[in-house]
Write a structure and sequence with these properties.
The structure is a single chain. The chain is of the alpha+beta class and 636 residues long. It has 14 helices and 18 strands. Strands 13, 14, 15, 16, 17 and 18 form a 6-stranded antiparallel beta sheet that branches. Strand 5 and strand 6 form a beta hairpin. The longest helix is centred in the middle third of the chain and has 28 residues. Pathway: Cofactor biosynthesis; coenzyme F420 biosynthesis.
């Protein structure tokens, strides 16, 4: 008759309170050989709580130093909720508070985990063999919570002479099915069995398991084999921590392996791009996926020829052209390409160039947010990427080669693949790991697979690209103006922008030729004479200025700021307040000249309140620092 598998487990009584420096082997041997106990035999497994090991090793600290002790034991924060921290400690264990515990220890003290639990287990096993002549396994355990499960259980943190893992891969089950991933955590099962008889408050820190001699093995590996490595850990971070980590995980990769890219991973990244913020509830992104080598080569060859023609027209030497063309190797060597495109579907129509340009810039910014989401999602799929702007310089060529609609504007190309090596550390201030909590999380938008009516997308024979459109926004009127890249928008009447060129926006609109920048001193000097000055409203509250028809805003006196900027640019002496004028001179007298420049005046049509204002009532005294331009009203 076949014997039914079974084992026996009991707690070991008679162990006194352990203090720093106690001989733990002697205490265990005495308790195991006491009258009325079964003793110890070859093949037994001793399950020892880590607390008595920590006490014997003197791993006791004052409770006031608990947070400092947690910091010292922490390698990385996995999750944080209020004051609770789930961290990875220096032993590689993911535990609450790094395993620093205030239970079963005298009041006012906390316990750290043993310095090296595996070494402690080996010392106990060797000491018991010498003292009692028995070959036993030793496990050192601690209590911890588990993901997805409520409640606590004991797990093994140190082991000696015990097969901590039972690898069944390569075998079959009772039905003949192959076992491909089954690895049993035997040591943790023994730890949990021992905890059933030890308890948490009974003063029984050691249990003995008998009847499983096959788990005792002299050559068994230690408990570190139970710690899952980072490369195979699918749940390495908490939810919010994973979001922040994903932002820093995205790195520009310029060298890729030849491993194929999973098209499904790219499509999931496209779905993530659709959650980026966008104007007017649109999705102004289209992603062209180049999944065949033929389609990638055809596009890159056409772009190269166009780039070479442009450089030759610029008068570049052939050596210089060759160097610049080689920069495109990052795209040519990638096993997968995606071309993000901007579309203006759903944009608003404006009759003037200024607002039309602002509308387009808004869509450009949204496209950048969508591409950022795309890159971050690729990093989450363990795919490297490099966003290269080259398609923006030859949009007509890209549209022709890929047969794209005229209204699709390519916004660079993204090389995608497995990174050939670890990325370099980020340079500059704050290089390396991102500080926890330093990265904001973009506002989520509702997402449903219905947003992607054309996903998954196949690639037809011949290497034609596939298109990922996202949801269909409302159509854009054909009569809507588009920025031609020439004339600058007209500024609002009554205001002059802070820019060296009067009447031009602070930045050139999308597609316009950028102006030659001026030196800082010249820019400040030019700006000082044309500072923007708001028109004060007599009905506004003191300390405020406001535009006609607009809500008041607490703006500084820009004329004073401009004067100070002019002073700093020219190194002039501190300016004096304007000299007093007699009533006979009137309020339209000019201010005296100072240095090489005239004092700034408000633009035509601006009304000022102050010593030169033509308003009822006595004149206000000149503000400190001088100035006859518009000043905000101030409480007296």
């Amino acid at each position: 008759m076949t014997e039914t598998p079974s084992y026996r487990v009991w707690a070991l009584p008679g162990i006194p309170e352990v203090r720093p420096g106690d001989d733990l082997v002697k205490l265990l041997a005495t308790a195991a050989t006491a009258d009325g106990t079964p003793g110890l035999a070859d093949g037994d497994v001793l399950v020892v709580t880590s607390k008595i090991v920590s006490k014997a090793e003197g791993r006791v600290v004052e409770a006031v130093d608990r947070e400092a002790a947690i910091d010292a034991e922490t390698v990385r924060v996995v999750a944080r909720r209020g004051t609770l921290r789930i961290v990875e400690n220096r032993l590689g264990l993911v535990m609450a508070a790094a395993g620093v515990d205030a239970s079963n220890t005298p009041s006012g003290t906390v316990l750290l985990l043993p310095e090296d639990p595996d070494a402690s287990a080996r010392a106990l096993r060797a000491g018991l063999r010498e003292a009692l002549g028995v070959d036993v396994g030793v496990l050192i355990t601690d209590t911890a919570g588990r993901p997805w499960r409520s409640g606590l259980t004991d797990m093994t943190i140190g082991a000696a002479g015990v097969r901590v893992l039972d690898d069944l891969r390569g075998g079959t089950d009772t039905h003949g099915n192959p076992l491909n991933v089954t690895v049993v955590a035997t040591a943790d099962e023994l730890a949990a069995a021992g905890d059933l008889v030890k308890g948490k408050a009974g003063g029984l820190p050691v249990a003995v398991v008998r009847g499983l001699p096959h788990v005792v093995d002299e050559a068994a590996e230690d408990a570190r084999a139970l710690v899952r490595g980072a490369e195979s850990d699918m749940f390495r971070l908490g939810t919010s921590e994973a979001v922040r980590e994903a932002l820093s995980l995205r790195r520009t990769v310029r060298e890729f392996t030849d491993d194929p890219v999973d098209p499904g991973a790219v499509r999931r990244a496209v779905a993530a791009a659709l959650t980026a913020p966008a104007p007017h509830h649109t999705t102004p992104w289209r992603f062209v996926l180049l999944e065949s080598a033929e389609s990638r080569t055809r596009l890159l060859d056409a772009m190269r020829d166009a780039w070479i023609a442009d450089l030759r027209r610029d008068g570049r030497s052939e050596a210089s052209i060759a160097r610049r063309v080689r920069r495109g190797d990052v795209l040519r060597n990638a096993p997968y390409l995606a071309v993000p495109c901007l579309v203006m579907d759903g944009s608003h129509d404006y009759p003037d160039a200024r607002r039309a340009a602002a509308e387009r810039e808004m869509f450009v910014v949204a496209t950048g947010a969508g591409v950022q989401n795309f890159l971050v999602a690729l990093a989450g799929e363990r795919l490297g990427s490099a966003w290269v702007s080259s398609t923006m310089f030859c949009r007509d060529v890209v549209r022709e080669v890929l047969s794209l609609p005229e209204e699709w504007d390519p916004m660079g190309a993204v090389a995608i693949g497995r990174a050939a090596g670890a990325p370099r550390e980020r340079g500059g201030a704050g290089a390396g790991r991102v500080r926890r909590g330093a990265v904001g999380v973009p506002r989520p938008r509702p997402f449903s697979p219905s947003y992607l009516p054309q996903l998954p997308l196949g690639v037809p024979p011949g290497g034609a690209p596939s298109f990922s459109r996202g949801c269909a926004p409302r159509p854009r009127s054909a009569a809507a103006p588009r920025w031609a890249g020439g004339a600058a928008p007209t500024p609002r009447r009554g205001l002059r922008p802070l820019h060296p060129t009067s009447g031009a926006p602070p930045w050139p609109p999308f597609g316009a030729t950028p102006r030659t920048p001026q030196p800082r001193s010249a820019r400040l000097s030019s700006n000082a004479g044309r500072a923007e000055i708001a028109r004060p409203d007599l009905k506004s509250s003191p300390g405020r200025t406001m535009q006609p028809g607009r809500a008041p805003s607490a703006r500084p006196a820009l004329e004073d700021s401009a004067r100070r900027a002019l002073q700093g640019a020219r190194g002039a002496a501190p300016m004096r307040a304007p000299r007093e004028r007699s009533p006979e001179q009137g309020s339209r007298g000019r201010s005296p000249r100072r240095g090489a420049g005239a004092e700034p005046r408000p633009p035509r049509g601006a009304r000022t309140l102050g010593p030169t204002a033509r308003s009822a009532g006595p004149a206000r005294p000149a503000p400190r620092g001088g100035g006859t331009g518009a000043q905000p009203l101030r409480k007296r």
